[in-house]
Amino acid sequence: MQQGDVDMAFVCTGAYTEGKRNFSMELLAVPQMYGETLYYSYIIVPADSSARSLEDLRGKEFAFTDPLSNSGKLAPTYMLAQMNETPDRFFSSYTYTYSHDRSIEAVSEKVVDGAAVDSLIWKYFDSKTPQVTAKTRIIVQSPPYGIPPVVIPPGLDPELKEKLKNVLLHMHEDEEGRRILAEVRIDRFVEADDSLFDSVREMETRLGG
């Protein structure tokens, strides 16, 4: 998007705040899911793990999702900071899976002792492949954050911008649009103010960027 290769993208919350800060990435719309425009970071462990809190994962192997991910990296790192800890000190080792799907599977297969994942993706997995999520257990739910948005690059042709926004905001009024939205558990797309993501920016600031 920064290079102008795409006109629209669905990005994670952390990527949006960085893109907005670095090259004025623009917010186009956000999905409303399960009746709200918020989501959470889940800390999950294998279903039979003895862990009941983040503290119980001290000295364990952990999976983050992506360095730009809010739910998969920033939020859990902030949780550790509130405990006066860092990932390097707290975990015996950690890795990046670069996919919430892979993080969920890594926990279900006991490749790692715990992981931080997007609540929306965990719920989607739970509806599609409950045999996988049944092997995991949520031990921490973060405070709510602004949901991952649909974004456009700065300077996009105003006519195209309006056309894209119109398609998103009215999808739920069309039979085929409703079918597509239902498949990915989205109620509808709505407009949102950039302030929806201020809590994420606050964590970034407190962690030093």
Description:
The structure is a single chain. This protein is of the alpha+beta class and 209 residues long. It folds into two domains: 9-37 and 146-206, D-Maltodextrin-Binding Protein, domain 2 (3-Layer(aba) Sandwich); 41-142, Periplasmic binding protein-like II (D-Maltodextrin-Binding Protein, domain 2, 3-Layer(aba) Sandwich). It is built from nine helices and eleven strands. The strands form three sheets. A five-stranded mixed β-sheet has the order 6-5-7-4-8. Strands 1-10-2-11 form a four-stranded antiparallel β-sheet. It has a two-stranded antiparallel sheet with strand order 3-9. The model has no long low-confidence stretch (mean pLDDT 96).
CATH superfamily heading of the largest domain: Periplasmic binding protein-like II
Q: Helicity level, as a percent range? A: 25-40%
From the alpha-carbon coordinates, what is the Rg to the nearest angstrom?
A: 18 Å
Just name the CATH architecture of the largest domain: 3-Layer(aba) Sandwich
Spatial strand order of the main sheet: 6-5-7-4-8
